[in-house]
Design a protein that fits this description.
By secondary structure, the chain is mostly helical. 75% of the residues lie in helices and 0% in strands.
């Protein structure tokens, strides 16, 4: 009898066409992956600040944890080009983070790091411009062209044989920031942090006697930037899927 009444109550509920019923527990659970990434990022920055032996292993854990967080959050939303490009960008970033370990046959890790992160930025540009952009390109995005010119002029005498590679990488980095201006606030701000991170990294690598705190600042801005980009893309896809 009780089961009959419950069935009657359920059948009496009428939903408007197109209405999506979302499980509240499932809606809340997708954040946990990003919380885990935040913990790993904080731990890595702390290890870096005290020069711990765990610095490099924790660095190599960053992008896999963020990729798993994105995949967990996107479960049930369908797997398309947007998610594929996001995971590809994180995978190339991971290879860039671990260039010294993944490409030990090169005397200098920097060329392979530039190549891997260049491919990551190419994925981001394609993702932001083709799939995730929600508005027209704002006029103020031209500031990134000024940033690139200033960066190249200031660093060119210090770059040596890597001058052309760094200039091309800077174009890809700037293009990521430009394309992100068409996206939601999380992606836009994440791209700004990523650009700030690589700008500081360039000065840390190529200028004489950089300050000790610069390496920590590079990783703080990098982890925030990558996390916000992934979060923004995930929120975009979940909104499209009605989650």
């Amino acid at each position: 009898m009780r089961a009959t009444r419950l069935s009657a109550r359920r059948s009496a509920v009428h939903l408007a066409p197109g209405t999506t019923v979302t499980n509240p527990a499932r809606t809340q659970s997708w954040w946990w992956g990003f919380a885990a990434y935040a913990v790993i990022a904080l731990a890595h920055v702390a290890f870096l600040a005290v020069d711990s032996p765990l610095t490099y292993p924790s660095k190599l854990a960053l992008m896999p944890v963020l990729a798993l967080a994105a995949m967990w959050a996107l479960r049930g939303t369908g797997w398309g080009a947007v998610a594929t490009l996001l995971i590809a960008a994180l995978a190339f970033s991971w290879l860039g983070d671990g260039a010294a370990a993944f490409f030990p046959f090169f005397e200098d890790e920097l060329p392979m790091m530039l190549l891997c992160f260049g491919l990551a930025h190419a994925c981001y540009v394609w993702l932001f411009w083709r799939y995730v952009g929600e508005r027209r390109l704002p006029w103020w995005s031209a500031v990134y062209a000024v940033w690139w010119v200033v960066l190249v002029v200031v660093l060119w005498p210090l770059l040596g044989g890597l001058a052309i590679a760094v200039a091309i990488y800077g174009l890809l980095l700037g293009a990521t920031a430009v394309a992100a201006t068409r996206c939601n606030p999380a992606v836009l701000v994440g791209a700004v942090f990523f650009l700030a991170s690589d700008t500081m990294l360039a000065f840390d690598r190529f200028t004489p006697n950089p300050p000790d705190w610069l390496g920590v600042a590079v990783m703080v801005t990098y982890t925030i930037g990558q996390g916000l980009i992934a979060l923004g893309v995930v929120r975009y896809l979940r909104a499209k899927a009605g989650r």
